[in-house]
Queue: 2 jobs
Job 1
Amino acid sequence: MKQKVVTSPWIIVRKSNIHSKGVFARKDIPKGTKVIEYVGERITKAESNRRADIPLQKNKKNPDHGAVYIFQLNKRHDIDGFVPYNTARLINHSCDPNCEADIIRGHIWIIALREIQKGEEITYNYNYDIDDYEDHPCRCQTKRCVGYILAEEFWGKLKRWITRKEKKIVKQKKKSAKGSENKPSPKKKVNVR
């Protein structure tokens, strides 16, 4: 049985500056509005892990190819939103979102955090874990962007990691530069006949 596309009177889908297609406000949306439901196939955690691995492996070869649309529902089940009738799967991540996802009585709703103006792109933070953060670069281009799709609770840790990594690179460059200063320049070989 073919599912009917889940949409909302609040939204319209069109090209996004963040990534590919996006969801935009068709009209002004008041704070607290349930903008659209995130729907899909209800699956077990084991099946969720299996399905998530496939696009992640593809993503390592081509960052624009693999995408995971699996949403945590509860301790036992997730929702796989990679279905053609789930319009909410087109909502892009932002480090400065205007919406959030909330689970209400077994349904995942995208809810406005503030008033959203007509034409504004609908976004929420995907809240990814810090594991493999480098595999998930962010393209939101907001002033608050941390460079990766990551839950805000990990931003401080990420900043410390990046600072340590940058210091290590600078230290290695200095060490490398110092080593090349002390080495004698190679002598040219001259062929004498």
Note: Residues 155-182 form the longest helix (28 residues).
Job 2
Amino acid sequence: MTGFFQKKIEAIETLGERLKKHREAKGVSREKAARMLNINVRYLKLFEEDKYEYLPANIYAINILRSYARILDLNPATAVDVFQKEKTLFYKTRRRAERERISDFYLLLNRFLSPNALRNAIIFLIFCVLIVYLGFAVNRIASPPELVVDSPPDNFLSESEQVEIRGKTEKEVTLTINDRPLLSDREGNFALTLDLQKGLNVIKISAQKKYSKARTVYRKVVVSNE
């Protein structure tokens, strides 16, 4: 009978992990090692965290690594060789990932620029334009017309029992003063001399398009009793 057993596969340590492991085994802090090498502690951190893209130029990085390996009692030549191989693999992997991202981008772009996608996009755009146009058209039809009353001003005090109502509205509207029809000219201008009573007179001026709400303006005119 043949038996099977599982064996745990140990992960391969990177150069940075080995450097950190040996440094900690010697009881040397990263700051102390940096002082011994007379360099910025940031470089040792970059080495131990395998951040190759942030290291200085290759010749300077190798010199630092050789010195660091010596104080950790490691073989400098072996450390440099591992560093070069890991750095090469790192950049190859990154370039491959970048190519894959670019490939995915162009694939997505081609999908969006396909004839079917373009046709659907144009149809959707036309639909949106029509909806916006219809919205403006309905709003224009349903909204009350403009109505400006130039004379008289509100709360007007008059000594005469007549007052001129004068103003302007839009073309082709139904215009009323105190619910009585009033005609306007082709430009929407209107004028009417209205008889008043003694005391307070409330004048109601309304304008309405065929399918819209009415726009109403009130003017209060007080005729003196004297």
Note: Confidence is low (pLDDT under 50) at residues 1-10.
